[in-house]
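User: Please run a holo structure prediction.
Assistant: Happy to. Please share the sequence and the ligand.
User: Here you go; the ligand is D-xylitol-5-phosphate.
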Amino acid sequence: MALVSPSLLSADFGNLQRDIEMLNRSEASMLHIDVMDGMFVPNISFGFPVMKFIQKYAEKPLDVHLMIMDPGRYVSQVRDTGADIMNVHFEACTHLHRVVQQIKQAGMKAGVTLNPATPVEMLEDIIDDVDMVLIMSVNPGFAAQKFIPGALKKVKRLRQMISEHQASALIEIDGGINLETGKEAVDAGADILVAGNYVFSAPDPMRNIALLHAL
Ligand code: DX5
Ligand code: ZN
């Protein structure tokens, strides 16, 4: 059984309340919220006012993926918009250890995200402190891209690192997830599947969430 975190980036923003209520009724375990700043990634999505609105309607934990430079600047604002998990990019933090401690002190779970070119070995000295590692299986910035197969090897190596450390971090994978790539990711050791396009472009999004959940 995989945990599923549907990405609201692919929701219909004109009907956001309807889409969030659908996710409340679905087998999703959490909601994935993609925040982009136009600097760390070449796209801009949405920020705190929209997140406050998501918080108002969502009945499941909010899994916030910050694709922004220096995310440590925004720990309290992210907490105040209802985030349960605050994911920051390894590549966007000069002092990752400090940011992880700040996230936990603010009462959230701390996640660290790796771009496709960043090896999981970079986490060796922080893995005991984090609640989640998010492996990007596309270059961040856009929905509906093609899955990068090299991400599977990273998930396997990360699973091994976590067991060697007897650490408790969950492994999440994000980008190009569908039934086929989702199955490969779960077999490699992923706990949580993020899915945007595969869920929201489906005729029956709740069914696709259930299919991923059953992997
Ligand atoms: C990409 C985002 C993803 C994206 C996933 O930058 O981090 O969460 O929305 O979308 P799909 O599942 O369509 O690749
Ligand atoms: Zn994401």
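Residues 150-165 form the longest helix (16 residues).
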